[in-house]
Design a protein that fits this description.
There is one protein chain. This protein is α+β, with helices and mostly antiparallel strands. The chain is globular, with a radius of gyration of 18 Å.
């Protein structure tokens, strides 16, 4: 599919743009604060809280109530955490984990698998990993001046992400 000349091009290399870790507790209060503490221990960054979009009476959540926390990690720290997360999954992901835009996500059931000591006062939390992949040159779509589009040939496809 991709010829030899394209394969050796340094602009075609795929890299991790960012890794987003998310813990959705489904309620505000003490459990959410403990989940935020787990993310802070894991990453060393302050987590951001997500709010419910609308009230769901069966789940007992109200609109604008804080129900989740997430952290965005970039650079070398993202690669280390991604490697730890994939090690828990034994480096095997199913095809459904990959999106059409070349990004992928997966979940783990216990945060202690990542190497954090178990603390009975905190408990055990599962978390979602979401990885955004990019190629060099993706800045043209995000920059403020001379904003442009990423070409179809340069976009990452589902197959590219699976191969990576």
């Amino acid at each position: 599919m991709v010829n030899e000349a394209k394969a050796g091009n340094p602009m075609r290399e795929i890299r991790v743009s960012k890794l987003v870790l998310n813990i959705c507790v489904g309620e505000s209060g003490d459990r959410l604060q403990k989940a935020a503490k787990v993310l802070e221990q894991l990453t060393g960054q302050q987590p951001v809280f997500g709010k419910a979009r609308f009230t769901v009476r069966t789940f007992g959540i109200r609109r604008n109530e804080k129900i989740s926390c997430s952290v965005t990690i970039r650079g070398e720290k993202a690669m280390q955490l991604l490697d730890a997360g994939l090690k828990v999954k034994e480096y095997e992901l199913i095809r459904r984990n990959f999106s059409d835009s070349g990004n992928f996500g997966f979940g783990i059931n216990e945060h202690i698998d990542l190497g954090i000591k178990y603390d009975p006062s905190t408990g055990i939390y599962g978390m979602d990993f979401y990885v955004v992949l990019e190629r060099p040159g993706y800045r043209v779509a995000r920059r403020r001046r001379i904003h442009s589009h990423v070409g179809v040939q340069h976009r990452i496809t589902k197959e590219d992400a699976i191969k990576w």
